[in-house]
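Revision sheet: structure tokens.
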Amino acid sequence: MADYYAQQRHIPVNQVTSISLPSTTNQLSPQQFSTIMQQLKSKLTPNIKVILLTFHAPYRVGCMSITSAFAFGFDEKYCGQKPSNTSKCNLTAISPYYNNQANLLGKKTVPSGLV
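Predicted:
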């Protein structure tokens, strides 16, 4: 899938990589995820600004979705807290991407709070 996506969008081959995720479970522990993130970060170069995830499982890291864990890094502040009012929704920390500049991809650097 990655090769097809890169070919259709003219992404240089040296900017395509892959990592292995265990496929026998739906959830990773934060420690397992940390190892996977280290593996991914070792393959990234400064000119790569977007990571496209394609996966079936696992889909959770501890209490977070795996997509959020890759975007924010695993942090329990993004896990739902018990609501303090009658709302049935659980609250999490606000995404650092929320209400931020939509044109960050054009920047040479990304603010440190967003990596």
